[in-house]
Specification:
The chain has about 325 residues and is an all-alpha fold. The chain has helices at about 1-30, 35-65, 70-75, 85-105, 105-130, 140-170, 180-225, 240-255, 265-280, 290-315, 320-325. Helix content is about 80%, strand content about 0%.
Length: about 325
């Protein structure tokens, strides 16, 4: 009797857990429904346009007022710097797309991280150009011009490598495992990834709000008290983003073991975590190592995926490894 009672309690506990898991996945689906996604996209466009107009207006005031307020003067007098603001909103929207990609595919999620890094690098071009004292005197601004060329070239190479990464992913062998039991296990795995994505949504919005407040306080301190800036606006929020993604990828790696402990899958997912770590490091180092480390990260992930596909073509257990890789 005691054993049967214990089994009954375990079954009830398991059913309750599965119910909570299903509710969490459903909450993700409601939050990121097609209508909500369209709303997020429209909001991003409006915010980007508003940011561009506001920044350009502040630059206009800084250039034309005899004694502009400190906060206005801190914006600078180069109109090209206004291009940096709308791109920042576009980048944040890409973060939302990254969250959406987590339940879809581990590989797709890593690809979105590569996209974000490449966009950060190409966004830096606007910041670099804005630091020119004169756009006609390149000879006297070798350091600034070199930074522009580095970001342009690095961004282009990253763009190419991301395209190669997705091309390699499309050439992955198709799964032929159609068993009903395994399909249920995969569906459960996807539900768990949706819960991870939902928790990430809340966490990243909190981090974004904290970084925004921190940046506003620093802007006020610099403008009002001539404080020395300590925050790098190029990497604010994104250092924390990739730190969080390292742990999220590690959790997904561990959960994938419930489906399969196949060597090829474990190695691929572990290598993807390493690639994310390199992405994070690339945001923390100075030029030119930031771009170089970013390129190494994307190239490493692409080679890992290429080797994974090659292995699947000859692996006896490729059905399991491929299905879990979704």
């Amino acid at each position: 009797m005691h054993d049967k009672s214990g089994v009954g309690k375990n079954d009830a506990s398991r059913s309750s857990f599965e119910l909570m898991q299903a509710r969490g996945a459903a909450a993700f689906d409601r939050l990121y429904s097609p209508a909500r996604r369209a709303l997020f996209r429209r909001s991003m466009v409006y915010l980007a346009l508003s940011g561009l107009g506001t920044h350009a207006l502040l630059v206009f005031l800084a250039r034309n007022l005899v004694e502009p307020p400190p906060l206005v003067a801190a914006v600078g007098t180069n109109y090209l710097s206004a291009l940096y603001t709308p791109f920042s909103f576009v980048l944040f929207y890409e973060v939302l797309l990254l969250i959406l990609s987590i339940p879809e595919s581990t590989t797709r999620s890593l690809g979105k991280q590569y996209e974000i890094l490449s966009l950060i690098v190409i966004r830096n071009v606007f910041k670099d150009i804005a630091e020119f004292e004169s756009v006609t005197d390149f000879a006297g601004q070798v350091v600034e011009f070199s930074a522009v060329l580095l970001d342009m070239g690095g961004g282009l190479l990253m763009f190419f490598l991301v395209a190669v990464f997705y091309h390699v992913n499309r050439r992955r062998p198709s799964s032929i495992d159609s068993s009903e039991a395994f399909a249920r296990d995969v569906a459960t795995f996807i539900e768990r990834k949706k819960i991870i994505a939902l928790l990430l949504s809340a966490l990243l919005f909190v981090i974004a709000a904290f970084n925004l407040i921190q940046w506003c306080v620093e802007v006020f301190s610099v403008a009002r008290f001539d404080a020395v800036p300590s925050i790098d606006v190029r990497t604010i929020f994104y250092l924390d983003l990739f730190t969080v993604m390292i742990f999220a990828d590690a959790v997904i790696l561990i959960l994938s073991l419930l489906l399969s402990g196949h060597y090829v899958l474990v190695f691929r997912n572990a290598a993807f975590v390493v690639s994310t770590i390199l992405l994070r490091f690339s945001l923390a180092v100075k030029k030119p190592y930031d771009v170089e480390l970013g390129l190494v990260s994307i190239a490493f992930g692409t080679l890992v995926l290429l080797t994974y596909n090659y292995y699947l073509r000859f692996s006896v257990d490729r059905e399991t490894a491929e299905a879990v890789g979704q």
